[in-house]
Amino acid sequence: MAIRDFGEIAEKLRRSTVLVLPGERGNGSGVIWSADGVIITNAHVARASQMRIQLWDGREFDAALVSRDTRRDLAELRISATNLPAVTAADSAQVRPGELAIAIGNPLGFVGALTTGVIHAVGPLVGPLGGSLRGFGSQPWVQADVRLAPGNSGGPLADASGRVIGINTMVAGSLALAVPSNAVTNFLASDPIDAWLGVSVAPVRVPRPGTRAKSFGLVLLEVEPDSPAANASLLPGDILLGTDEKSFSSLDDLSTSLQGKGPRLLRLAFLRGNYERFRRVTVQLGGQRVPGSAAAA
Fold first, then answer.
1. Residue 253 catalytic?
2. Which domains does the chain have, with CATH numbers?
3. Active site includes 244?
4. Which range, 96-110, 197-211, 213-227, 275-289, is most confident?
5. Has 181 been annotated as catalytic?
6. Can you give the C-alpha Rg of the chain in angstroms?
7. How far is it, in rounded angstroms, from Cα 270 to Cα 2?
C-alpha cells in the first residue's frame, strides 16, 4: 500500500469518527454507521438518554439513545443530520491474524488520534489454561495489538482498506478488544426492547450451603431505573442463578434466556442477603408491562 493511499484511508476514517459527550465529565468515540444519522458507540460510553455528538468538521448535534446492549457493550445513537460520511463495514468473520489494524478515536482529549497494529486473534478471550477467560463469556472479540487509551472506546477498528471490522471497547493485558462488526450488524437488526433486562452483571462463584462446592452465578452490579429488572424488584447485589428450565453456567446463558419476541414472562432464581434461601422472581419482557405480574418471591 502506498503511503498516500494510507493517508487517504486514515483521513476518511477520521471523518467517520465522532466525539461522544455523555455529560459534563468524560468523553468517548463513536462511528457514523449510516449517512442518515445512526451512530454506534459503546454502551459504557452512552451513559445518558441525551448526549452531544461532535463531528470531525466541528459541528455539534444532540443525540438520542435509541438502544443499548450492556452485555455486548453496544449502543445506537441517532442525530438529525443527513449525507454524513458513513463507514463501510467488513465481514468480521473473514478477519485473520496478522492483518493490519487501524484504530481511530479521541483518547485523552486528542481528537482523531490514529494508532496501528496487527490482528492477534478473532474469537473468545482465552485464559492461560484454555477456555474462555472468566468475566468475558464466550462471545468473540477482534483482538489487536493497537494502543488504546481512555476516550478510544466506541471508535472504529478498521482493516487496511479502511473497512470497519470492530468497535474498540477495552484493553485486556497488552491487547485491544473490539466488538466484531458482525455483532454490530446483529445488534442493529434485533429489537432492543425484546431482549432487554436492564442490568449490568459480573460472574461469581457462590458457595453451596453444607458443601465445599460452588455454583455459578451472575451478581447484579447495576439495575437501570424503570427497566424490567427494576420493575421486578431486583436489586444491585442480587445473584442470578438461572431460570426454571436451566441453571446458568455462563454469561451467554442469561442472554439466551432473554431471547424472544413480544410480551412474555421469564422466571428467574436468585439469591439475596445469604446463600441459603433461593428466591424466584417473574420478569415481564418485551416492552409491555403487566402491573403486579412481576414481584419477588
1. no
2. 3-78 (2.40.10.10), 92-189 (2.40.10.10), 199-285 (2.30.42.10)
3. no
4. 96-110
5. no
6. 20
7. 58
